[in-house]
Every structure is written in C-alpha cells, then in structure tokens.
Design a protein that fits this description.
The structure is a single chain. By secondary structure, the chain is an alpha+beta fold. It contains 6 helices and 6 strands. Strand 5 (290-291) and strand 6 form a beta hairpin. Helix 1 (2-36) runs antiparallel to helix 2. The two termini are 47 Å apart.
Length: 304
Amino acid sequence: MVEVHEKNSIAFSLAIEAIQKLRGSVTNVFDHLKDGKKTPAHGNDAKKRAFLSDLQAGLMLVTIEYEHFEKQAALLPKWTEVPPLGNTSLLSLDPITDRMSFYREALDAYKWSDKMRDHCNLSAMLLSQIKRSSNFGHHASKRKKPSIGSHAIAPDNVDSIILSIDQYFADLTVHRKQTSPYVLQVTVSRTFKAIIVLRGLLIERVVVRATHEKETREDGSPDCWTPSKYLVFQKITDHVTSTMLHYHYPNSPEMALKQFMNWLRSYNKLFSTPCKRCGKYLQDNLPPTHRDLRKLEAYHETCR
C-alpha cells in the first residue's frame, strides 16, 4: 500500500512539473508575440525572418511540452476510490464548478447514514438483552408518584406571586399582559423588555426586545414569537432561553421564577458594564451579552 502511494505521488509530481514547463513555454510565446508588435511594418526583412523563426521554435517547444504533459497525465491513477451510487455518479461530470463536489458530499452522507444504521441496529440488539430488574418487589410498582401541580395554579395565585416579585426587585417592572396563556411583560430598567409566557409558574418562552419595539400584534394580543430586529437582543434572547431551562424546578416553581428574575435583572446595566475577562465594553460591536449563572458577571460570548 505504501509503494502504491509513493508511485502515485511521483506520478503527480511529474505531471505538475510537466504542466509548469508547458505554462512557461506558452508564456514565452506570448511574450515574444507582444515584443514583436513593436517591430515596424516596413522594417528589415532579416528581422522579420528572425522573428518568425523564433516564433516557430517557440510553438514547436509548446507542442513538445504538451505531448510530454499528455504522457504524464495518462500515467496518473484513475479515481476508483468508491463505487458509483447509480446515476448520481453522473453529477461528478458536471462542468459547473459549484456542482462538481455534490456527488462527493452525497457519498459522504450515504456513508454516514449507513454507519448510523449499523450503530442503531447494534444498540437495539443490546437494549433488547437488558431485562428489567425485579429487586424492587411488588409494592414498588404500586407507589404513587408525587403530583406536580406547578402548571395548574390559579391566576389569582400567580398574580400575587408576580406582585411580590415586582415589589421585591426594584430594577424590574412586571405586569400582566394576558391571562390565558399567562403572559408577562418585564421591563429591565430602561435597557430592554422581555415577554415571558408562563404555564402556571413554569416559564415556557421568553423573547427580549428593545423598549421601543412593538409588543402586540394587529389583533392586540401579545407578540410572543417575533424576534427583535437588533442583534444584541437576539443574542440575549438565546442566553435567556438557555437560562430558562437551567432554572426549571417543577417541584419549586416559585423559587425558580424568583431566581430567574434575579438573573434577568443583572442586565440592568447592559451597555455600561465591561466584560469581566477582557475588560472591554464592546467586542464585534456588541456589549457583553452573557451573564454568569452564579456571580451574575458580564462576559462576551467569546470570553466566557
């Protein structure tokens, strides 16, 4: 196998050398023609004959170099790395440059799916051999699971909890926009406003927008889906969504909601807080949009 690779590398090296010589010969011919244009039309006949003789010699050299290149190209190994996948192999013959790599990409996708199918079959075989353990006894199956009612809380109770959060955090202004589903609008100082959709006390969706952006749709209902037109608030929406999943405590929804609000209020000085790592206010024209979950420190996306 090593000898084959060495033989192929030598063939490619000779072919590259031959095409370099051919390009040099063609360049010399064109340079000679370019210089020949400076010769007067009614000049010396001897100079004209010398010019034509040199041009003929250059063209003969180009012909010799071209034949040598054809011989070297014929010695190159043929592309027989993979078998063709039916008529899709004809895609590699498309002369358009953008489509020449499509067949190789399709082939890679076919290999990947083939390996994935093998791994799935192996996993299914292993899982079928695993039997449930019976060490828990008959009473374990009769135990009742604790009911989680964090999504079935009366709106009045939710209002009282939201009111307590609004009074506790001075940097946040929280008020209800809709009851079914329960939608909140949280304004963080004068930095931005967040539309929060609750199911009981569990946070289902958060969208962050600028304070002057439109917050309702044409029918007057809260707009819970349209992202902000500003990149900085789109980035914050992504961070808020991941943090929402971090503070997901179905058994303690009130505590989770308060911790989330405490984390959200760390953006009250978004544009005046430098990055904790690099000390800069802006990076790629964006302020530090990430907040640490423990110390609530500001970081750029590339500095966290």
